[in-house]
Design goal:
This protein has 1 helix and 12 strands. The strands form 3 sheets. A 5-stranded mixed β-sheet has the order 2-5-8-12-11, with no helix packed on it. Strands 1-4-7-10 form a 4-stranded parallel β-sheet, with no helix packed on it. A hairpin with a 5-residue loop joins strand 11 and strand 12. It is globular, with a radius of gyration of 15 Å. The chain starts with a strand and ends with a strand.
């Protein structure tokens, strides 16, 4: 498909993705041949909570962006919140990225913030690679 935004801006978007979503973000999957142009998203908050499917992908913009998708003049700013209990529930095979959990896109990552949320936010360590957008969540050792 094709989305031509004509420079429009979508603001103040909140997505809470609980339980069992295979791919999460503003878009679950941006597939091969898809094209998004001249569209801007600001103040987006995406929260991943609850138990998830192993192998799921999530990011602020999409769960997965195909290498054959085209994104031109697309900006995203906002916050990606991840509940570390996802790891504690054995979902450590899931992949999270600032922009997308899987795939590539040539969009700046500088206006995206990532943090842990929920009751178990101190049960894990969050590491974010600002160059690649890759997020690593490691459970803390339990006493």
């Amino acid at each position: 498909g094709q989305i031509i935004g004509n420079g429009h801006k979508m603001s103040n978007i909140t997505v809470v993705q609980p339980n069992g979503a295979q791919q999460g973000g503003l878009f679950g999957f941006i597939g091969a041949g898809a094209s998004i142009t001249d569209l801007h998203f600001s103040n987006v908050t995406y929260t991943a909570i609850g138990s998830r499917i192993q192998g799921s992908t999530a990011g602020l913009l999409a769960g997965t962006i195909s290498d054959q998708a085209t994104l031109e003049n697309v900006t995203v700013s906002g916050k990606l919140l991840i509940d570390p209990s996802l790891l504690l529930d054995g979902m450590d095979l899931s992949t999270y990225g600032m922009l997308a959990g899987a795939g590539t896109a040539d969009i700046s990552l500088e206006n995206i913030k990532v943090e842990l949320t929920g009751d178990n936010k101190n049960a894990a360590i969050l590491a974010v690679n600002k160059e690649t957008g890759e997020i690593t969540i490691t459970p803390r050792e339990r006493n």
